[in-house]
Every structure is written in structure tokens, then in C-alpha cells.
Design goal:
Layout: H1 18-59, H2 75-100, H3 107-117, H4 127-151, H5 156-166, H6 174-181, H7 189-192, H8 213-239, E1 243-249, H9 257-262, E2 264-267, E3 286-291
Antiparallel strand pairs: 1-2, 1-3
């Protein structure tokens, strides 16, 4: 029996060992590292794209009070903007796909997980559509920051650096807060709304999704990677007929009633990751497979 854990298992199951627990925890640590690295790379890609967008904003002689990234303002400008945003979209999706599917080297598992991954979106959207929605939000926020910077005569070099630095807390930026105070003078939708985050269709942001486009994208990346890795784990446990269930325990002290309620033994049929609270942000819960009594089997983690 694993040390320092009061694991209650049903009769007819093989006791969990320290080795079993450590292997289960290592899988979660690998999953977290994959998500952390992907988010870090994504932040760099987004920061570089934001700086390029600011340069485009400064390139065109458009009054800051009417400036926004929209084809109705300047079609040529938006052609340049779309090139940057299309490239960013492709890079982010490929990064997410590679990180999410790095949980397995098995070709058949890879294909099944890819089908699972593409449907992991918000508000009945696919994953690609969800990424686009938050990239659109990012674009609107960079446009608002550009308008505010130009309005206050901030030099382009400084505006690029300030914008990149502000992406994680856009509405706290001094220049944008100053523009909010005079928002009646602006036609930029984000400034006129006082910094209200929306979706492309105009609906308001939903609870649980960060207001800032950067953080919303990072949130999608984190949850999609976690969901895919946990689906892979569930698939592997279901394939092994000697595994009859799993033990779940907390891997952090992050306050979460859902995670608390899941601590304990579960039959293998209970592990549907579509409904599992293990795929939410900040979750570090680990699952250790439980084998039938007398089994000599071992869990193989890719």
C-alpha cells in the first residue's frame, strides 16, 4: 500500500504501491510541463504579433479618435493585419495540437485524440473557432491600445513595448485608462465600451474566461492540453482489461469542491473525461489505475 495515503479499495483488487502512485503523479507533471511550455511559446508569438500590429497602426495616418482595426477604416491596412493574424492563428493551432498530442507515441491513439481535440471549444464552438474568437478579441484590444497610444503621442517604439507588456492586463494600462475617461471622443468600440470584452458576434464575455485575449488564449491552451492528456490516460486504462478502476487524489491545495468530491476509488466506467472535473484550469489531480487482484499487469505511460 502506498505510504501516507488512506486508500480504500474494493475487494478483489491489487493494492496500489508507491511505484504506482509516483508513476501517476509523473504523468500529471509531464502534462503540466507540456501546457506550461506551450503557453510560454504562445505568449511570445502573441507578443511579437502585437508589436507588428502596432507598427501597422502607426504606419497609417488615421486619426486616433476613429482608429480601429476594421476594413471600414482602411482596407489596405486590414490586408496587412490579416496576414499577421492568419499566421498567428496557424502557429498557435499547430503549437496546441503538437503539445496536446505529445502524450502518446501510438499512431492509433494519436488519430483518436486528434478527433477529440478539434471539438474542445467554448460556447459550442470547435477548438479552432474558439482560438479565432480570442484572437479576434486580442486584435480589438491591440487596436484600442494603439489608438490610445497615438492619442497621447507615444512614440511607436515605446508603443510597441508598452502594448506587448500590457497584453495580460489591458484595461489597467495607463494610456488606455486615460482614453476610457474620454471615450465619448472615440469611435473605437473597445474604448467606447470602457473595455468590455466580447465575442466576434457581440455577445459579452462569459464567466470563467479571462477578459484579456492573451489570457483567454492561454486558458484554452491549458485546458485543451489537460483534457487531451486525460482522455489519453482514460483510453489506455479502458484498453487494459486487467484494470478495473482508478484511485484519484488531489495534487495541489487549490480550492476546488469538485476536485475534493472526486477523491477516492472509482470504477473504470466512471472516468469519462468529457464530464470529469479533472480538465478544468489549475487542476493537478492524479489518477492511479487499480488492477484486479492477482494481476501482474503494469500501466504503461507513453
Amino acid at each position: 500500500m502506498a505510504k501516507n495515503l488512506e486508500i480504500s479499495q474494493p475487494q478483489g483488487t491489487r493494492p496500489i504501491t508507491d511505484k504506482d502512485v509516483q508513476a501517476a503523479k509523473q504523468y500529471i507533471l509531464r502534462r503540466e510541463e507540456s501546457a506550461r511550455l506551450a503557453q510560454s511559446i504562445a505568449e511570445d508569438l502573441i507578443g511579437e504579433a502585437a508589436e507588428q500590429l502596432v507598427s501597422i497602426a502607426y504606419k497609417y495616418n488615421i486619426s486616433p479618435t476613429v482608429f480601429t482595426f476594421d476594413s471600414s477604416i482602411n482596407e489596405q491596412m486590414m490586408d496587412e493585419v490579416n496576414v499577421i493574424m492568419d499566421e498567428l492563428d496557424e502557429e498557435l493551432y499547430l503549437l496546441l495540437e503538437e503539445s496536446a498530442l505529445s502524450c502518446t507515441k501510438d499512431g492509433s491513439h494519436h488519430n483518436a485524440l486528434l478527433l477529440f481535440l478539434v471539438l474542445l471549444g467554448h460556447r459550442n464552438m470547435t477548438l479552432r473557432q474558439t482560438l479565432y474568437a480570442y484572437e479576434w478579441r486580442l486584435l480589438q484590444q491591440v487596436g484600442a491600445l494603439s489608438a490610445a497610444m497615438k492619442w497621447l503621442n507615444v512614440p511607436e517604439t515605446s508603443a510597441r513595448a508598452k502594448t506587448r507588456q500590457a497584453l495580460g492586463s489591458v484595461n489597467a494600462t495607463p494610456e488606455l485608462r486615460s482614453a476610457f475617461k474620454s471615450r465619448i471622443e472615440f469611435s473605437n468600440p473597445y474604448i467606447r465600451s470602457g473595455g468590455a470584452a466580447t465575442y466576434p458576434d457581440g455577445t459579452a464575455n462569459v464567466q470563467g474566461v479571462p477578459n484579456d485575449g492573451l489570457n483567454a488564449i492561454k486558458n484554452v491552451i491549458n485546458i485543451a492540453i489537460a483534457s487531451t492528456w486525460m482522455r489519453n490516460l482514460q483510453n489506455k486504462m479502458e484498453e487494459n482489461k486487467e484494470i478495473v478502476g482508478y484511485y484519484q487524489d488531489r495534487g495541489s491545495e487549490y480550492p476546488c469542491n469538485a476536485c475534493d468530491e472526486e477523491v477516492g476509488y472509482h470504477s473504470i466506467e466512471e472516468g469519462n473525461p468529457d464530464e470529469s472535473p479533472m480538465v478544468h484550469a489549475h487542476c493537478r489531480c492524479w489518477r492511479c489505475p487499480v488492477f484486479a487482484d492477482g494481476s501482474m499487469g503494469e500501466m504503461v505511460y507513453d
